[in-house]
Amino acid sequence: MVMYSPETKSYNRIASLSGHTDWVRDVSWSPTILSKTYIASASQDKSVRIWSSSDPSGQKWEESAKLDFPEVAWRCSWSLSGNVLAVSTGDNRVSLYKQKLTGKWELMKTIEE
């Protein structure tokens, strides 16, 4: 991740999120008013990784979950409230996930076409 500094008029890297073993196809930042923020990334390696941070500077992130799929994960998108993650995959499915109070991510519904 990079952040723009108006003082220096340049971009500085503030964090690197690693873990995927192939191309990252999409990245989505959750819109939230909560103290914790989330980033999801969809990859050619057939997974979506979810990172969370409570750090206002955005420098400290931890991986919250890794969601595995039978096909390539093409896109990921958060609901407007930031509590539901939609993932589209190469098998023409959209899967909806929500974080439980235990911290685990639960599959709520899969839509097939």
UniProtKB/TrEMBL annotation:
This is GTPase-activating protein S13.
